[in-house]
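Standup, Tuesday
Yesterday: got the pipeline producing structure tokens again.
Today: sanity-check two examples.
Blockers: none.

Example 1:
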Amino acid sequence: MSTEVPSLRFADLGLSEQVMAAVQEVGYETPSPIQAATIPALLAGRDVLGQAQTGTGKTAAFALPLLSRLDLSKHTPQVLVLAPTRELAIQVAEAFQRYAHKLPGFHVLPIYGGQSYYPQLQALKRGVHVVVGTPGRVIDHLERGTLDLSDLKALVLDEADEMLRMGFIDDVETVLKKVPEQRQVALFSATMPSQIRRIAQTYLRDPAEVTIAAKTTTATNIRQRFWFVSGLHKLDALTRILEAEPYDAMIIFARTKSATDELAEKLQARGLAAAAINGDVQQAQREKTIQQLKDGKLDILVATDVAARGLDVERISHVLNYDIPYDTESYVHRIGRTGRAGRSGEAILFVSPREKSMLRAIERATRQPIAEMQLPTVESVNDARVTKFLARITDTLALDENSGGEMGLYRELVERYEREHNVPAIEIAAALAKLLQGDTPLLLAPERKREPQEFQQRREYAERAQREPRPERGDRPGGERPDRSERAPRGEGEERAPRPKKDVGPRQPPEAGMETYRIEVGHMHSVKPGNIVGAIANEAGLDSKYIGRIDIHDDHSILDLPEGMPKPLLMHLKKVRVAGQALRLQKLDEYDGGGSKPQGFKPRGFAPGGGKPGGFKPGGFKPGGFKPGPKKPHRKGPPSGA
């Protein structure tokens, strides 16, 4: 289907009166290209195969027409939306609620892992019209018989390629096989890998195909640079840039709402005029904050992608990507906040070693190279601090001249102190300057002399090997493949001998505050660390940074998780599926299935005779996700009373 459609208004698309009233209340007038192409097809009952990036308006593209076709007299689910993460599930459910504002008695329910089953079961019993859920939790409800899809009219697969990347594609097919034959399917994906295309060909009937090209052109008047995250903490690096880089106003993009609030607070504590805007900020407060930015009362805005959409402030000279965006279009939208009205702009991107592929993808999509930047040195930061300090003196002197000499009293006090204590005026001025600066040192401490790069790389690699899974061959120092001409020739028809799996080797005890678990998926199931992290983080509502080292063996894997994981959550994670296999998660020291444990490993703090692992404290589980507490110091020896 062509996306070149004439200029339309939402009123021309055939939405129901109640939905149209909500659209007008939200303030939408002109549909985006994907909305103009998708809404009529879904209203006509056709299946839809849509290829579009995040941020193109696809949630409204499927929510508005499906809401228009609801039968509110029925109280069983008529629409099911599958989303890869609980954050997206909540976001989509909120959008449905917003667009159904004028529909009397409408109910939508988000269901995802990490949340108690009880409120979900109660809501399903009362009756809902739309369910938005992650694949694992939807399958759990189907197997329990608590989710009735007999009246289902439409199934939406949102961000299908992301579900593929996180290892949920088998669960998606399981759901597809359980829905009624007479149903509408809408599949949306930013890319169309072969597995997604196969699902579309198998389960969609004569779909209307909608492709929205990503807008990946960036303005030539924006200078783009990246800093390769290493050594310094990101916050310290950001502080250096803010102190030494001349800027008028800056937007800093973070990935989550909580990250914007936390970062803004830390910048405020460093004396910077910063504020956060995100999806939780009320519209009135958002407008007030943006006006402060325009008026020069604020210099730094810390924002999420959604909150900064449509933001147009001329004095924004810099955009800094504190967290790299998930897709190239988001990057283009972000840096488009600077370089407005023909002015030059600066875009800076923080990139960690694991995000190098995303950096290259951005360069390919925008067809523009992004230059690596060097952080300002300690000397340049100190020079900037001294310049600002001296400028404050100059400004104060100028202000005194313009105001008629209000400093006369202070001058008399300095002269009096000089006479009575026989202290030179220069010493008094230095003491007053120190009093003004307070406890914060004016200058940064000199940087330690860096070791030669070769030794630094060897040390960093050795440290990384202790805490991360082994990298792929091509990423290892000295790990290049031998030239093909040096290999022994293989006879015609001769098959390559299977390469044995390398033993992971002795496993180190977990870090303080962590416990070691075994799961029943491994190499034989074609599982990768990303599949495991994605499943556990999503179902447990656990930030991926709290998932420790993962060692994948032939038929099982070993990983570290935070201490204090509540028993109901552990029971749920036993049933979570990765690569089509149930994890059957259990503590390594309690494993009784006859499998082999890593050699040389002894659980930290484990006492013979029934003692508990040291440092274990139950609790910390709240509906909506497990939140690990601070890591505890490593406990030596058996627990008391063992």
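Example 2:
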Amino acid sequence: MLQRGVWPDGSFEPGAVLDVLQRPRTRRVLWFTVWSSTAATTIAVGLGLPAAYVLHRLRFPGRGVIRAALLVPFVLPTVVVGLAVRELISTSGPLGFLGLDGSAAAILIGLVFFNVSVVIRTVGVAWEGLDRRPAEAAAALGASPVQVLRTVTWPALRPAVVSAASVVFLFCATAFGVVLVLGGVRYSSVETEIYLLTADLFDLQAAAALSIVQMLAVIALLVVVGRLRRVPDPTVRRSVAAAARPQRRDAPAIAATLLVLGAVALPILALVLGSLRRDGRWTLAHYEALSGRGDDLLAVPVTEALANSLRIAVDATWMSLSLGLVVAVVVTRRVRSRTAGRVRAVLDGFFMLPLGVSAVTLGFGFLIALDEPPLDLRSSPLLVPIAQALVALPLVVRTLVPVLAGIDDRQRQAAASLGAGPWRRLATVDLAVVWRPLLAAAGFAFAVSLGEFGATSFIARPTEPTMPVVIYRLLGHPGALNYGTAMAAAVVLAGVTALVILAVERLRVPGVGAW
């Protein structure tokens, strides 16, 4: 991408990037991306904080089920999220009377729906681990609940909130499918603009320039956030605190949580009901059409696309697990020099880049980099799994690193002193702790691969499409049958993804839930 953007004709021309940025349309795209991501992040944090408190600090029946249900939107394919919100606010949908279809507000709804679970999980896990005694001591000394929150709880919680907000902002800025489905021709983000420049206009230089700008912005944001995440009070104590029963003062937070739960359930419910209706009556015709090719728009039946997605997801899972486990082991081993520590930190950050860099950018990079010998993988069946494995890699690493870092090295030393070799120590010490998180990481990778759309849209072959690609192709052609088939396919894909995530949630290790 650097070569295409800065050396377009074999000579160094950094002005080519500036020329692209000076285009009026590029400025509008950049402004919309920043504006929509900031607004959606603010709303998601505002809705997620009360829900994080209720679901991670209070004890009530059904808490685990609600937590798992609110986690599902995050791993739903972005194209499914866009379709669900579109069905909710369309003229024939439950909220059609609001007139939001085709507006910027529709995109904000989709972005918040997709990312509020990130805030709930990230902040909730941190809140769950806070020691209650400082807050109780402050209250005993006469501090009001607001004073306790401001002087005790917030300083300890701020790094998790900043971390969650930064991740949500990155996900909003790179939510390709949401903007593509809900934005139409009126709104475009950096993601969709790169896709348009590449797939429709064949302006690879402009697409490369936007990709470079996006990567630089992501790196700068990660550096700034890394500094802001530092806990200002090093004496803050953490422990796995027992959840308390709800009190009367918790009523506003409980009401906000119910609001979030309803907001998450409505689009999914609208999608399911829409897939079961045709010409004003209930029918399974859209699901029966999954065995066809959608008015001959597709090279293969939709059911074959589902089989492709499952097969690719298996390959992407073992690839991301293999590399992720190696990376997690390397970045958690003790180092004896400051230089080695810095190298390890850089390595850790390098493998986190796919978390913030657009999947569209990743797919575009594969498209222009792996198109000639000795790395011509365009016709290889491994190209799509490799791309999806890289997209899932950060989640695998973030799931395994806290677990491996929490293992006391003295246990390995004790095993070695008793005669255990390296492999025996690995089996008896590390694997005994990491097997559950490893299965959870596999579930995350599998779910992410199932729904990956940005990179796959560039490199998937027409004869071997995945389900998200098929759904978008059906949406791109008019006709009630195509639209209904797309909804049915989205429901099937969402159901498979939800089952995987519910299984992952049962494998979560208490106190090690940040991802």
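Quick observation on example 2: The chain has two domains: 1-275, 279-515. The mean pLDDT is 81.
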